[in-house]
Structure formats: structure tokens, C-alpha cells
Amino acid sequence: EQFVLPSKRFIEGLEFINSTHLLMSSGLTGNSHLDIINIETMKIERTIAIEAKHFGEGITILKDTIYMLTY
């Protein structure tokens, strides 16, 4: 199955949250996001826009906390 990204998103990080959901960070100047994707439906279930002054990079999860590198 194919997943189509919203336009102007560049994937910077991917990490599985559980067996059905994927966390994706995307970076672009003024347009960075953190998304939760349901891999069974291939739909974005939640999007968090990062402030335009930050450029989103990679992500990781440690215990119950999501860490996203920005600059």
C-alpha cells in the first residue's frame, strides 16, 4: 500500500509508536510538523504544527516522552 504525503513535507524522522501507529517528523522552513499516522488506514490521525521559527528534524521516543530535534 502507498502513503501519499501532504505537499511540501520532507520526512526527517520515523518511529513506530505501537503496532498500528507511526510517528513522523517533517521539516521545511516555516512548515515543520509532527504527525501520527495509522498504518492500517494510511491516514494521518493527528498533526502538530511546529512554530515557523523552528525547523523540524528527527524524533525519538523515550519512555512516554517524544523528543524532536529542531533548530
Briefly say what this structure is.
The chain is mainly β.
Keywords:
single chain; mainly beta; two-stranded antiparallel ribbon; 71 residues; 0% helix; four-stranded antiparallel beta sheet; 6 strands
Report on the architecture of this protein:
- The strands form 2 sheets. A 4-stranded antiparallel β-sheet has the order 1-2-3-4, with no helix packed on it. Strands 5-6 form a two-stranded antiparallel sheet.
- The protein has 71 residues and is mainly beta.
- The model has no long low-confidence stretch (mean pLDDT 90).
- It has no helices and 6 strands.
- The N and C termini lie far apart (33 Å).
Radius of gyration: 12 Å
Q: Regions with pLDDT < 50 over 5+ consecutive residues?
A: none
Total helix count? 0
| Main sheet: strands, sense, barrel | 4 strands, antiparallel
- Output the helix-strand order: EEEEEE
Sheet-strand content, in percent, reads over 45%
Q: Residue share in helices?
A: under 10%
Give the strand order, joined by hyphens, for the main sheet: 1-2-3-4
Give the structural class.
mainly beta
Q: What overall geometry do the principal axes of the alpha carbons give?
A: globular
State the separation between the terminal residues, measured CA to CA: 33 Å
Care to count the β-strands?
6
Mean pLDDT: 90
Topology:
Layout: E1 11-16, E2 21-26, E3 33-38, E4 43-49, E5 56-62, E6 65-70
Antiparallel strand pairs: 1-2, 2-3, 3-4, 5-6
